[in-house]
Amino acid sequence: MIMKKKMVTDKNDRHDVLLYAISTCAWCKLTKQFLKENNVKYDYIDIDLCDEKDKEEIRNHIRKLGGNLEYPAIIIDKKILINGFQKDKLRKALEI
């Protein structure tokens, strides 16, 4: 991916976590807060701050994993996609 990812470092780095978010989205903010509270290291991209080419690349990445174009979109270990803020699914996938 060309666009810049922002990294949030923390002690729980057992999984590769990528969060596609919208900077003004309440659910996206709750997801970031949840990850922080659980000390999860993750990268994120606020897609609304990307250019059109990068937005299309992100949409294609989500579709390739079988997801809907809903945000937040959390990709764990490059294969598990969770659309929306779903604490139970996040806890299970992240083993927390």
Describe this structure in words.
The protein is of the alpha+beta class and 96 residues long. The protein has a single domain (6-78), classed as Glutaredoxin. It is 34% helix and 22% strand. The chain has 3 helices and 5 strands. It has a 5-stranded mixed beta sheet with strand order 1-3-2-4-5, covered by helices on one side. Strand 4 and strand 5 (80-83) form a beta hairpin. The chain is globular, with a radius of gyration of 12 Å.
List the defining traits of the structure above:
5 strands, 34% helix, Glutaredoxin, alpha+beta, 96 residues
What's the short version?
With 96 residues, the protein is α+β, with helices and mostly antiparallel strands. It contains three helices and five strands, in the order ββαβαββα.
Write the topology of this structure:
Elements (H helix, E strand, L loop, with lengths): L5 E3 L8 E5 L4 H12 L4 E5 L5 H13 L8 E4 L3 E4 L3 H8 L2
Parallel strand pairs: 2-3
Antiparallel strand pairs: 1-3, 2-4, 4-5
